[in-house]
Amino acid sequence: MGKRLSAILVVVIGLLVTSFFVACAKQEQAAVEGPPPVKVAKAETKAPPAEAKAAETTQATETKEAESKEKAPSGAALYEQPVKPLTPVECARCHYPIFKDLKESKSKHRFECTNCHQQFHVYNPIKKNWEEIMPKCQRCHQLPHGKDFPNCLQCHENPHSPLTIPFDVLVQTRKVGKKEVIQCALCHKKESAEMNAHPSKHNEVGCQGCHAEKHGYIPNCLDCHEPHVEGQTYEDCLVCHSPHSPTAIKPYPEETDNAVCGSCHTEIYENLQTNHTKHSELYCATCHTKHGYIPKCQDCHGEPHGAALHKKFPNCLECHVDPHNLPVLSNR
């Protein structure tokens, strides 16, 4: 009985020792291999809405381009397509300087290029057919300045900017009949006739003296001339003066400021101011209804001194001396 218990005890102890060594071996292996990987759930990533939309657009464009390439005609089929007239913008791809001239010219020539250029890209240097294919101004404009100006491009050098006219061309003279005439006068006949009828210092400076900045430029009188009175404007000048006949004073209103007249007629104006009479209260234009007109005293005063006195002294100024500086009775 004692031997049997001893045998059981030895077996139990052996199992315990074996279990201990097995457990140690497993722990050591786990330490070498490391912990098992942890599985983490992957979050789904979505592109921002703008990027997604852009990607869709790009993809759609690429698809459309691919389809277009597949459908685009080639070879002989290219010549079966309908031909559309060129637009000014399409012409400008090659002829940009001309397009720019038209754009900046502000002229009435800003319409379809093909209105004038009914033949294009047909110039042949062998044929030298430039004159033949270029559009003619007369086709639309006839001869607006008359038969004296048959060559439009002599002044309107650039038909794509027709109002840009070099002044050195305009001031040249040409023979018309038996007379040499400045070319400006061939179009501006009224102004030319006015200057010839009323010569002034403006004739000496000529057209180019005032208008040379560019064709169509209208100068201000005050660019050269001092105003008659302070604050006078260009419009005030035109009340009395025409630029092409400045000495032929136009009819003026009776209410014209006396200081305006006094700027030229200085002594008379000063006499009226310093020797104050009823004449000083009047506008100059009340008596001088036209520039240079000298009225008679009788026009306003009649014959105030009686027939006998007026018969003896028919000229009022024998006694009254100067209507702008009348003798004044003193108290002495």
Written account of the structure:
Strand 1 (173-176) and strand 2 form a beta hairpin. This protein has a two-stranded antiparallel sheet with strand order 1-2. It is built from 17 helices and two strands. The chain is mostly helical. Among the domains are: 86-146, no CATH class; 252-332, no CATH class. The mean pLDDT is 83.
Helix content: 40-55%
Q: What order do the helices and strands follow? A: HHHHHHHEEHHHHHHHHHH
The total count of helices amounts to 17
State the secondary-structure class: mainly alpha
Which radius of gyration do the C-alpha atoms yield?
52 Å
Query: What is the CA-CA span between the terminal residues?
Result: 189 Å
How large a portion of the residues is in β-strands, by DSSP E? under 5%
Task: Throw out a few tags for this protein.
332 residues; mainly alpha; elongated
Secondary structure: elements and pairs:
Blueprint (H helix, E strand, L loop, with lengths): L1 H32 L15 H23 L16 H5 L3 H10 L24 H4 L4 H4 L25 H4 L2 E4 L2 E4 H5 L1 H9 L3 H11 L22 H7 L17 H5 L3 H9 L9 H4 L10 H4 L5 H6 L4 H4 L12
Antiparallel strand pairs: 1-2
Question: What is shown here, in short?
Answer:
This protein has 332 residues and is mainly alpha-helical.
